[in-house]
Amino acid sequence: MRILVSACLLGVCCRYDGSGRPCRAVMDLGKEHELVPVCPEQLGGLPTPRPPAEIQGERVVTCEGRDVTAEYCKGAEEAARLCRMLRCGRAILKARSPSCGSEQVYDGSFSGRLVSGDGMTARKLKAMGVPVTTEESLDPG
Length: 141
Known about the structure:
Structural class: alpha/beta
Largest sheet: 4 strands, parallel
Radius of gyration: 14 Å
């Protein structure tokens, strides 16, 4: 099976702070499955590093107050296009991210509080019927 994976979980330095977040449990899936790395923020045209962003209602806003909703929507569309084109059977995305978070994201106040919800890419993929989980479902520690 092909699995769409947040590139940062494979160690790619594409997170907002310029780091990667390699997850052994995700990387180990590559022994039996084809992993397709994706960074929706970069696909949407945002640089790395970039200011942190959180979802505020239907918008995505940086800690500096810049509205980056268009970039997050474009990244979600591009990730969805890749998922369709490569016929990925599921997605494993970075927990709590404003693009990739599934089930929980930060509340938009930049205070570290979590709320129920999905990031922009997770929403798009779920709407397409793609099963979406986070690395935490594979590696709770």
